[in-house]
Design brief:
This is Hydrolase or metal-binding protein. The protein has about 300 residues and is an alpha+beta fold. It is built from seven helices and 14 strands. About 25% of the residues lie in helices and about 35% in strands. The termini are far apart.
Length: about 300
Amino acid sequence: MLKGFAITPPIVGRISIGRIVEKNGKRLPEKDDQFTLTTQVQNHDGWMLHPAHEAQLKRSQATKLRTIPVMLPFNDPDLNLRAEYIQFNRETGRPVAISDGLTCQRRTGKGMETITCAATQDCCRHQSDTKPYGRLYVKIGDEDDLGVFIFRTTSYNSIRTLAARLRYYAAVSGGLLATLPLELKLRGKSTTQSYRTPIYYVDLVIRDGMTLRDAIQEARQADAERQAQGFDQAALDEAARLGFGNGSLEETDDDLPAVAEEFFPEQQQAHIQHPTPSVINGTNLSDKLKKKAEAVLP
């Protein structure tokens, strides 16, 4: 095996909750309130839809895709969800630093330098242009036994929720994540930082219509059938573990520019325009205060 680059699961499609749009001559990321399943091919309109997208819409009988039945490729939670802090160089589209929260690998003129995050502010985790970056691998349908769809995200909400779900489900099922019937679910929330407008994140739950007990029982039956047929899940997990460990970066040079464009836009190209705190419901706050003062004056 060639050394120096990670061997990742074969990707057959993408899952996104946003898209790249052109505004004022600039290509900028824009969030969405639904899932989109795409191929890995782009044209002038963006990523091309995967046939599974229409199939899932028909299944859900909805106009927007907000749940997707999935299976996980691995039993190990850390193989299904890969996450770290990452800092991109927007000019080259390549990462300059990657951190797991404990140590940071930074690209310098002398090569790769390793920094202990707790001992210095030079760690990329402490830089303002650093984001958490997660990749979730899932299987959709039965067309490809080993092929996966990838969901990329820089959302703290999605990464934290998915990490918790994976570890909890692994614990209660006895480590049978790969046979547990699950579904991706899009959830919304609002915060003070979003000025009470909804933001969306991805959750991983037991499939609709099933209880946790039902799902665990089904996972055990499916695992027993696999073993009887000679399917070695432990060996598959180990092969994936060795592949991920073969390199520090899991994206190829072809993928990096698109990842940087979608998740690490330049600061001055922020695509979400929130109202400033001084403007409420289209009225300037100072004007409101002035009117109130005039009302109480004799």
